[in-house]
Specification:
single chain, 386 residues, Rhopdopsin 7-helix transmembrane proteins, globular
C-alpha cells in the first residue's frame, strides 16, 4: 500500500466512523480504571491486605491501569475512525511500544503470580506470606524489565521502514511480531500452565493424604491416656514433611492464612472453628484440659484445607479466562505473519485485539471476587465509608 495524502485520509475517515468502537471502548476503559484503582487502593489502605501475594496483584493492576490510560484511548480513537491513523508516526511508535510492553507486563505478572503461588503451595518453607521478600521484589522487577526489553526495539526505530503507510498504525516488522508473541505469550503460557498443574497435583495429593491420616483423629476421644498418646503420634506423623509436596505446603504455614491471599484464601474462619469446637468439647467431656497445642494444630489443619479447596476452585477460572482472552490474539497475529495465503481480515484482528484488552478488565474480578475481604474493602471505598 502506497503513501496517502492527508486529504485522502480525511475523505476515508468521513465515511468510516465506527460508533461501536466508542460504545465498547469507553465503558471498557472506565471499567479497567475503576477496577484496578480499587485494587491498588484496597491494598494501600487496608492493613490486612498488605501481604506478599497482594503486591503481585498490585503490579498486575498497575500494568492494566497504564494500558487503559496510555494505550486504549488512542486505540479506541483509531478504531472510531475506521482503523485510520491521523496522528504523527512517532506517536504511533510510542503507542505500539506501550501496547507491547503493557500487554507483556500484564501476562508476565500473571505468570509471576503463578510462580509465587507455586512456591507458597509446593515449597512453603521458602515462602513468607506476611512479608515482602527480596525474591518477590526480584520477580516483580524482572517482569517489568523483561516487558520493557521486549517492546524497546519499536521505540528505537524498528517501525521506521521505507515506504511506510502513515495512515495505518501497526508493527511494521513481521519478525518482531513473531518474536514479541513468543516472549509475551508462547513462553510464559506453558510455564504458567505447568506451574498450576503441579500445584493442583500437589494440592490433590495433600488432600488425599490428609483424609487418610485424619480419619482416625476424628473419632471421639476416650478416657484412655494410651488413646490420647496414639492420637498425638498420628498427628506427629501427619505433620512430617515427607508425605508429599502438598502436605508440606499445608502444614508449613504457622497459622491461618491472611484474608488478603486471593488465590488460596480460606472459605471462612468457620472451616477451622467447627472442628476446634468439637475437639474442645471432647477434651472437656473426658476431663482433659490444657491440650491447647493439639487443638490449635487441628484448627490449622482445617483452615489449610479450606484454603486449598478454594485454590482448586479458582485455578481453572484463572487459567481458563487467561487462555480465552489471549490465545486468539496471538494465534491470529502469528498466523497472519507466517501464513501468507491465509485470509485474515481487519475485522478478525480487531475482534481478537478487543478480546485481549478485555482481560485487563477481568483481572480485578478474577483475583478479588473470590476474596471476601477485598469485596468488603471495595464496598467501603465505593460507599465512601471509613
Amino acid at each position: 500500500m502506497g503513501n496517502v495524502t492527508p486529504s485522502d485520509v480525511l475523505e476515508r475517515i468521513h465515511f468510516q466512523y465506527n460508533f461501536l468502537a466508542l460504545a465498547l471502548g469507553i465503558p471498557l476503559i472506565l471499567i479497567i480504571i475503576l477496577g484496578n484503582v480499587l485494587v491498588c487502593l484496597s491494598v494501600l489502605t487496608e492493613r490486612s491486605l498488605k501481604t506478599a501475594t497482594n503486591y503481585f496483584i498490585v503490579s498486575l493492576a498497575v500494568a492494566d491501569l497504564l494500558l487503559a490510560v496510555l494505550v486504549l484511548p488512542l486505540y479506541v480513537y483509531s478504531e472510531f475512525l475506521g482503523g485510520i491513523w491521523t496522528l504523527n508516526t512517532y506517536i504511533c511508535d510510542a503507542l505500539m511500544t506501550m501496547d507491547v510492553m503493557l500487554c507483556t507486563a500484564s501476562i508476565l505478572n500473571l505468570c509471576a503470580i503463578s510462580i509465587d503461588r507455586y512456591i507458597a503451595v509446593v515449597v512453603p518453607l521458602k515462602y513468607n506470606r506476611n512479608q515482602f521478600s527480596l525474591r518477590q521484589l526480584v520477580l516483580i522487577a524482572a517482569t517489568w524489565v523483561l516487558s520493557l526489553g521486549v517492546a524497546s526495539p519499536v521505540i528505537f526505530g524498528l517501525n521506521q521502514v521505507p515506504g511506510r503507510d502513515a495512515s495505518v498504525c501497526k508493527l511494521e516488522d513481521d519478525n518482531f511480531v513473531v518474536y514479541s508473541s513468543v516472549c509475551s505469550f508462547f513462553v510464559p503460557c506453558p510455564v504458567m500452565l505447568l506451574l498450576y498443574y503441579w500445584m493442583f497435583r500437589g494440592l490433590r495429593r495433600w488432600s488425599a493424604s490428609r483424609r487418610s491420616h485424619l480419619l482416625p483423629a476424628d473419632r471421639p476421644f476416650s478416657l484412655s491416656l494410651r488413646s490420647l498418646r496414639r492420637h498425638r503420634r498420628s498427628k506427629v506423623k501427619y505433620l512430617m514433611p515427607s508425605l508429599s509436596p502438598g502436605a508440606e505446603a499445608a502444614e508449613a504455614a504457622p497459622g491461618p492464612a491472611p484474608e488478603g491471599d486471593p488465590v488460596t484464601q480460606a472459605d471462612s474462619a468457620s472451616d477451622g472453628e467447627a472442628p476446634d469446637r468439637a475437639l474442645e468439647g471432647s477434651l472437656k467431656a473426658n476431663g482433659l484440659r490444657g491440650h491447647g497445642s493439639e487443638r490449635g494444630s487441628h484448627g490449622r489443619s482445617s483452615r489449610v484445607s479450606g484454603r486449598e479447596r478454594k485454590a482448586m476452585k479458582v485455578l481453572p477460572v484463572v487459567v481458563g479466562v487467561f487462555l480465552a482472552c489471549w490465545t486468539p490474539f496471538f494465534v491470529v497475529h502469528v498466523t497472519k505473519v507466517l501464513c501468507v495465503s491465509c485470509d485474515i481480515g481487519p475485522t478478525l484482528i480487531s475482534v481478537v485485539t478487543w478480546l485481549g484488552y478485555v482481560n485487563s478488565a477481568v483481572n480485578p474480578i478474577i483475583y478479588t471476587a473470590f476474596n471476601t475481604e477485598f469485596r468488603n474493602v471495595f464496598h467501603k471505598l465505593l460507599c465512601c465509608q471509613t
